[in-house]
Amino acid sequence: MPIPYHPPVKRSVEIAGHKTSISLEPYFWSLLKAAAEREGVPVNALVARIDAERIAVDVPPGLAGAIRIWLVADLRRSAARQDQ
Q1: In total, how many domains does the chain have?
Q2: Residues ≥6 apart with Cβ < 8 Å to 21
Q3: Which residue from 3, 13, 60, 77 lies 20 to 30 Å from 66 (Cα-Cα)?
Q4: What is the average pLDDT value for the chain, to the nearest integer?
């Protein structure tokens, strides 16, 4: 596995018909792509779902932070399923 310490990379995504850019480290972009493939949805659709979950909380984090948190939680859920 390549060293995960790289500066963020900005990419454009579309959420509800609006384009926005998100800066994530390459490691997180690769986790996001893998999660979208596993869920059978495009990256934009997964980002839109994460965005909807994020804005539903009392004090929403920024979108990039929400994506990172969602990805870490997804890894934990996967690890818990494997432990069962």
Answers
A1: 1
A2: 10, 11, 12, 13
A3: 3
A4: 93
